[in-house]
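Final report, Chapter 2: Outcomes

The project's central promise was a pipeline that accepts a single protein chain and returns its three-dimensional structure in a standardized token representation, suitable for archiving and comparison. That pipeline is now operational. To close this chapter, we reproduce one record exactly as it appears in the project archive, with the input sequence first and the structure output second.
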Amino acid sequence: MKRQTGQFHIDTRAIHAGQDPEVSTGAVMTPVFQTSTYVQEHPGRGDWEYSRTHNPTRTALQECVASLEGGKHGICFASGLAAIDTVVRTLRPGSSVLCGDDVYGGTYRLFTREWADFGIKFNFVDSSRSDVVVPPNTDLVWVETPTNPLLKTTDIADLAKKAHAVGAKLVVDNTFATPIHQRPLELGADVVVHSTTKYLNGHSDVIGGVVVTNDDALAERLVFLQNAAGAVPGPWDCFLTLRGLKTLSVRMARHDANATELRDWLVGRDDVDIVHYPGFSGMISFVLRGDLDAAIRFVKATKIFALAESLGGVESLIELPAIMTHASVPPDVRAEIGIPDGLIRLSVGIENIADLKADLEAAFTAAMG
């Protein structure tokens, strides 16, 4: 019998939702069901048939993330981009998507260099503006909040009302905020997307994605595409993500505390032009005073902050979006959005804050000295 965990606090659900003791042994931890197929009691009859279609480890992860987001349906994929791609597959040629202009470079690349060729129309706007307009012909509204890499936030409830007024669905990429800080479905969004690679897993050892929704018909379509296209995560990746989720709330508290202190430390420095921080989570971006060469010297000088793409792990990372995560966005588009070449993005980990400050101080000296 499945335990009912919906009434519990999100910290408790992160540990228990979707994860009943294993039936045959009573194992507390969800096993890694490392199998491709299952014995059927009768031809075509059985709860499990093939692991592309269903896998118990994946089911546990799907139910857990859905619970954290306050959703009925969780559908997991092999990567965040696979999750994004599958949502777009629910549209038809000629559909119109209104998208936030400051999104992950991989999302921008998928939309403009792949799906646009199949007749999907994309219009990019600053979704953080209170006066943003959703055109009448819009089928889908897509936003990240906070955005990547400028960390702008969007009024989800207001945008949901505008989207629904014209018959459009609202999709929110909640990767940066996590359900600890923001639950878009409760604010009126129709779909939530995560790269589980990031904060949900939290240990930089898994690639994955998930879509959560309360829309039964949309969920049925997404599950069909999950099976038909086959971009599913393996059971070991699902197990690792489940393990990571158990510490999500405590990790996010430390990410928040470290990032807030670093933000306060960076603001007002003579060698920093502007600091972007939404007030929660572990992401900070800032513009170093100087040229691109100075920014390159800075990111290469850190010892604790590893020069690497991705984010959300317990370890601190540093990168230059213009050259790394957003290199696929054309320079003129980056300039229009407001992503300068010298923008530095930090994924602030959970190390000792004094060590993180000392590491960045040494980088400032190397870059500006």
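Archive annotation: The chain has two domains: 10-245, 248-368.
This record, like all others produced under the grant, will remain available to the consortium after the project formally closes.
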